[in-house]
Design a protein that fits this description.
With about 210 residues, the chain is of the alpha+beta class. The chain has seven helices and seven strands, in the order ααβααβαββββαβα. A hairpin with a 4-residue loop joins β5 and β6.
Length: about 210
């Protein structure tokens, strides 16, 4: 009828399943994800451990400036290494331990498996929050750790979250880790590092101030 419009089906990708520019899902991402066919927590833990097993390749300060947050998730998987600092070259900033590389890959692989995932930045540290069977979890590849969270997190996309509880981790938290986790404040979250504005080492320094 004239004056009436047919309702269009909402074909938008659900929040945190959509790929960012740094986390585009291609053949290489799909192949890596296919090595872990399940979608249970133990399967996610296996993915975290596999990514944690990437070679940690050390670079001097000049090379790190060219490397830091420059690669896509697919390129990192192809290279099979994460970029870390030579200790001698860390002077006026926190050292780089491969966190962005690790968690950009994890975000992309989880989304390839149909699991909503968001890249999270906590000052000088990156993690991933993912949604599985009605609960939010936090994965820290550097610590080879998954934590279930209880506090409600308001996520700007409107994606409902009943949040994450700091207990019953796959690996028990030490008292120091538990204390640090409770105090950790999210600086930003998004689709990937580029999405929240970390595209080079100077952006990294800005987050550490």
């Amino acid at each position: 009828m004239r004056g009436r419009r047919a309702r269009r089906k909402d074909t938008r990708t659900p929040p945190f399943l959509r790929a960012g520019k740094q986390t585009q899902i291609d053949r290489r991402i799909l192949e890596f994800a296919s090595r872990f066919p399940g979608k249970r927590l133990k399967d996610i833990n296996a993915i975290v451990m596999a990514i944690a097993g990437f070679k940690r390749k050390k670079f001097d300060a000049q090379t790190m400036e060219k490397m830091y947050s420059k690669r896509t998730a697919s390129q990192i998987i192809q290279d099979k290494f994460v970029a870390v600092d030579l200790p001698i070259d860390v002077q006026n900033r926190a050292s780089v331990h491969g966190g962005i590389d690790y968690h950009v890959v994890l975000c992309s692989v989880l989304r390839a498996k149909g699991i909503p995932a968001q890249f999270v930045r906590k000052k000088d540290h990156s993690t991933v929050h993912f949604f599985l069977i009605g609960k939010w979890y936090e994965a820290d590849v550097n610590a080879a750790l998954i934590i279930r969270k209880a506090q409600v997190m308001e996520i700007r996309s409107g994606f409902s979250a009943a949040g994450i509880e700091l207990k019953k981790p796959i690996r028990a938290l030490s008292p120091e880790e538990l204390k640090a986790s409770k105090k950790s404040v999210v600086s930003a979250h998004g689709l990937d590092a580029w999405d929240i504005g970390i595209k080079n080492i100077h952006d990294y320094n800005r987050y550490n101030k």
